[in-house]
Amino acid sequence: MISEKDLIETKDMIYKIASKYSRYYSIEDLFQVGVIGLMKAKKNYKSNEFTKFSTYAYNYIFGEIIEFIKNDRTIKVSSDVLKLYKAYEKSKDFLINELGRNVSLEEVSKFMGVDENILSDAIIKSEFVLSTDSKLNDEDFSLEKITGSDNRKKIDDLLDLKRELERLKEDERKLIELRYFKDYTQSEVAEEMNMSQVQVSRSETKILKKMYNGIVS
Fold first, then answer.
1. Same domain for 4 and 69
2. Where are the extended beta strands (E) located within the chain?
3. All residues at 6 or more sequence positions from 19 whose CB lies less than 8 Å from its CB, including other chains
4. Which of 107, 183, 209, 211 would be a feasible disulfide site paired with 103, CB 3.0-4.6 Å?
5. 192: containing domain
6. What is the DSSP secondary structure assignment for residue 50, as one 8-state letter?
């Protein structure tokens, strides 16, 4: 049975997902797309003691919004912008390793000799496009692959995901929950867990591999 509280939580979740892309789309339009995913989730959901409705619905909502974005061709990113973004990532990682702390956009732009506004625009555009099909450390492991988050026919894989989350060590589970259930960036996770962004990235890849192997074995 889906409670009123579940529906309220899910509504808030739709807005949170939609807000990530609101720079490029009307948040209300994305909300309506998310509602379509919610209705599909509600139709297929079978109440059980292991999975909350909001957890179950996330895949449907996120998948519906991402499918909408992927099918929309209004956002274009040139190869030069993507190259600048990759240079930014490498420069940021280098500075973090050298200084032993997180660095600001201003610091990275000065290090690269690139105008801060130009760099900021490249980051926003590139992260928007890459976030729909991200890969970790150039390896074929992402949460989308593990859960099939862009394929609502595989929604029951969430149960496998929950099982693998419960098998993780406490710090591993916290990292994954922050990244994928609370939508923290790697930098935000690094600050929360007293790690560097590079450590978070490496740990994330290692944990996702571990979960993937557990699900497919």
1. yes
2. none
3. 27
4. 107
5. 137-217
6. S
The two structure tokens encoding residue 4: 């009123």
Structure confidence by residue, pLDDT tens digits, 75-108: 556 778 788 888 998 898 888 888 888 888 888 9
For residues 57 and 181, is the Cβ–Cβ distance under 8 A? no
Q: Which residue is it, tokens 């609101």?
A: 22
Q: What contacts 9, CB < 8 A, 6 or more positions away?
A: 54
Contact 33, 45 (CB under 8 A): no
Residues forming beta bridges with residue 139, ordered by sequence position: 136
Q: What is the CATH classification number for the domain harbouring 102? A: 1.10.10
Count of the separate structural domains present in the chain: 3
Pair (65, 3) in one structural domain? yes
Report the 10 Å Cβ neighbour count for 70.
12
- 208 and 141 in a single domain? The answer is yes
